[in-house]
Automatic annotation (TrEMBL):
Residues 19-136 form the Hemerythrin-like domain. Pfam families: Hemerythrin. It comes from the Bacteria. PANTHER family: HHE DOMAIN PROTEIN (AFU_ORTHOLOGUE AFUA_4G00730). InterPro entries: Hemerythrin-like. This is Hemerythrin domain-containing protein.
Length: 192
């Protein structure tokens, strides 16, 4: 499944282009989006709404990628408790994203919900980067291979999201991520 480093060889902290470098870059991108939101004037409602939608989509994509690739690579070395906590943090972020689907800038609780989401994401990122990232390095997992898989899966998910919604035919939805992000798109069609 994963190639591991020879026990006699020193482990690199982070492989360029590897999964940890990619996840760290995604974390930085999300921090920058939260910062951009915080810098906007409350009167810039359209831009605030666009940024929150982008943030929510990025967070949903990121959580999916971590759950499909990063957490399974850690399962043996991290133990269930740490990974269960991380999964609960993802669930909490998804709940806040669902709340944001029904809110618009200017609504009561819009700014507060974004602020709580930012705080929870910051806490989650700090835990991952200080506790989970080093565990992956110590496990000797092939960061480059996992990085390739992460890039390929992200492209698949983005293509799925960009595809026009399938017609209603009574079949199951094509994927959980599409359903999670669909609410963000549908919000634009509802009257305020």
């Amino acid at each position: 499944m994963h190639r591991f480093h020879d026990a006699g060889m020193p482990l690199p902290a982070e492989v360029p282009g590897g999964i940890l470098a990619l996840l760290r870059a995604e974390h930085a991108h999300v921090r920058a989006l939260f910062h951009s939101f915080a810098m906007l004037d409350p009167e810039e409602e359209a831009e605030r709404e666009r940024l929150v939608d982008e943030l929510c989509q990025e967070l949903l994509l990121h959580a999916t990628l971590e759950e499909e690739l990063f957490y399974p690579a850690l399962r043996e070395s991290a133990g269930d408790a740490l990974l269960d906590d991380a999964a609960l943090e993802h669930d909490s972020a998804r709940e806040l994203i669902l709340q944001l689907e029904s809110l618009f800038p200017g609504d009561d609780y819009f700014d507060a919900t974004v602020a709580v989401l930012a705080e929870e994401v910051a806490h989650h990122v700090a835990r991952e980067e200080t506790l989970l990232f080093p565990l992956l390095v110590r496990a000797g997992a092939d960061q480059a291979l996992l990085g390739e898989r992460l890039r390929a899966r992200r492209l698949q998910l983005e293509a799925d999201l960009a595809a026009p919604p399938a017609g209603i035919d009574g079949l199951e939805p094509r994927g959980l991520l599409r359903d999670a992000v669909r609410g963000l798109r549908e919000r634009r069609t509802r009257p305020r």
